[in-house]
Amino acid sequence: MNDASPMKKAPRYDRPDISLIEERLEPYGVALYIGGREGMSNPDLLQKHGITTVVNCAVNLDVNLVTSPDPEMSDDGLTYGFGAYRYYKLGLVDGGGNAETMMLAGYYQLLGALSQILPERASYPLRERGNVLVNCRGGRSRSVALVALLLHKQMPDRYPTLDAALDHVRTRRELHPDEWFEAPKPVLVNAAKAASDWIDRIAHRDPEPAEAARAQ
């Protein structure tokens, strides 16, 4: 009989389908939201908040997004065509199992989603640039870690450390303090810290003092 104590799990609390995290993300001038599966699958809610772009962090979550099927699509395959909004998929595991560079890749993918300018061709119909939603299944771990990393690196005057950015995102996402120890999962926080160091090196900046100390 195995009487080992189970791993501690945070209680589940209700939270909004989407939460406004940053009203004006600099230098892009758009609002940044976090949500879960309920928010990213609600086009009316997204339209109400001016969200035109969605970045899905979850490998275990997909959505029937196509609203305008391709007229050349065959009848014996999955539907493809244009969706309700501009959509990017990162695909993180909520815990261990991710390649160590995936959070770094997610950071640059999110920057790309914020800055990408689409050509004026019929095959790129969703050219409107509006607010951005970052989501995962519950909007409490993967998306929180990635958005905190983005805020820390893009707005360091307001979020001088990753921990400061995490506290801000947890509060605006209405995560209860009782679940902060696993929201985000510690392994994802560590991945964000490692990515922060790599971002500085890529930009030829010295790592933050705390990150440099950890590397010694």
Offer a few descriptive terms:
Protein-Tyrosine Phosphatase, Chain A; disordered N terminus; two-stranded antiparallel sheet; Prot-tyrosine_phosphatase-like; alpha/beta; Dual specificity protein phosphatase family protein; 5-stranded mixed sheet; protein phosphatase
Which CATH top level class fits?
Alpha Beta
Order of helices and strands: EEHHEEEEHEHHHH
Second rung of CATH, namely the architecture: Alpha-Beta Complex
Coarse structural class:
alpha/beta
Mean pLDDT: 90
Helix content: 25-40%
Structurally, how many domains make up the residues? 1
Fraction in beta strands: 15-25%
Structure description:
Helix content is 33%, strand content 19%. The protein has seven helices and seven strands; from the N terminus they run ββααββββαβαααα. The chain has a five-stranded mixed β-sheet. Strands 4-5 form a two-stranded antiparallel ribbon. Strand 1 and strand 2 form a beta hairpin. Helix 4 crosses helix 5 and helix 4 packs parallel to helix 6. The N terminus is likely disordered. It comes from Psychromarinibacter halotolerans. Keywords: Hydrolase, Protein phosphatase.
